[in-house]
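Hi V.,

You were right to ask for the full record rather than a summary. Here it is.
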Amino acid sequence: MSQVSRSKMTKDIQKRVALLLSEALTVCETREVAQNFLMDLLTPVERVMLSKRLAIALMLEEGYSYTQIKMTLKVSSPTIARVREWMSERGTGFEYVMNRVKQKQFSRKFIATITDLLVVLATAPGKGRNKSTLMKIRKGSS
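Predicted structure:
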């Protein structure tokens, strides 16, 4: 599991390190370069964690319910709530990036795939799935 050192950096160094990461991301001119950079920089757990946060945010923006997000991404309600809170508290950077991501063909395909998956999940019999759970999924309730 990823950890942050107990030894604290000064605020100035924290700021400079964050700026370095931002600068590194801005020089990634293509999706392939960005993907290679993130594959080299992040552990598999960190990649999954960050990817799920972004997917949760996109699904919330698209109006998916907590139940739908939990079933699709295998995350907990507190995780979804935390992302929702970040989305409402943070500045314009997150909103700008989400709007740009939603414009891309890739994200439209992702949302279509999620919708298709939820239809399959809602109609397929499954372990631990009862009628009330299926109704929540179909109605899009939390």
